[in-house]
Amino acid sequence: MQNVYIEPMPKGQWGPIDGYALEFPDGTRMTQQRYPSERLAVDEIKLRGYAPMIAKVRVTDKTVDEHWELVE
């Protein structure tokens, strides 16, 4: 099952999180929608048959495994 990353928005900033974007490992968006909570983003990813990955840190890098946690 392919991973989809739940990216906090805006990207690369330390400020408050405005929402979450769903992205594939190459950075392309799964949808153009911004989700108001991680729970809604996880539900959408699971509904489409992918494996959701939640960020453990605010500024993320998809190539660093320690930045991500798989949601069961």
From TrEMBL:
Which superkingdom, per the lineage? Bacteria
- What is the name of this protein? Uncharacterized protein
- Species per Swiss-Prot/TrEMBL record: Caballeronia fortuita
